[in-house]
Amino acid sequence: MPLTRSRLFHFLRQALGTFAAFLIISLLMDWYRAPAVPPQAGELPLHTLQGRHTTLAEAGGSQTAVLYFWGSWCGVCRHTSPAVDKLSRHGVPVVGVALQSGSDADVRGYLKTQGWQFDTVNDPHGQWARPWQVRVTPTIVLVKNGRVRHSTTGIASYWGLRARIALLDWLG
């Protein structure tokens, strides 16, 4: 069958409707699964396995920083972590929180095996993540000037995260 103008219009309308539904569902899921932000979250101390001692406010400065809750046991994290690592390699401040992934040596070994270099706090018993009420891994929290500005859960791409960061930077 030849592609007529009306068929093309119908296809585009269907595609736009599907995209809008996906976007709305995604935003609703992010809202529902959003972590709780502990009081003074920007000032919580972060001691990374790489020897860095900082806070969320200091980690990003005026840049948007990524707080990334993940686990070595998390299948979806294996797809999202390379995107987060790429952000880190391209100058985006990233602090990962390895949830219940073993000892410091276990997490260091896992990061090395995967080739990921983003700063990581080990949270072997979930004590650091508990006040955030993280219910889903991966959970990605975008922080600017020490304030949580956005969060998302589940699989994420480099370009999807980059777009969210650019939007936050543009909004100020």
Automatic annotation (TrEMBL):
Q: Gene3D superfamilies attached here?
A: Glutaredoxin (3.40.30.10)
Task: Describe the location of the Thioredoxin domain by residue ranges.
Answer: 35-172
User: Which named protein is this?
Assistant: Protein disulfide oxidoreductase
Please name the Pfam families in this protein's record.
Answer: AhpC-TSA
Q: Which SUPFAM superfamilies match?
A: Thioredoxin-like (SSF52833)
InterPro entries assigned: AhpC/TSA, Thioredoxin-like_sf, Thioredoxin_domain, Thioredoxin_ResA/DsbE_sf
Which CDD domains does the record associate with it? TlpA_like_ScsD_MtbDsbE
Q: Which organism is it from?
A: Eikenella glucosivorans
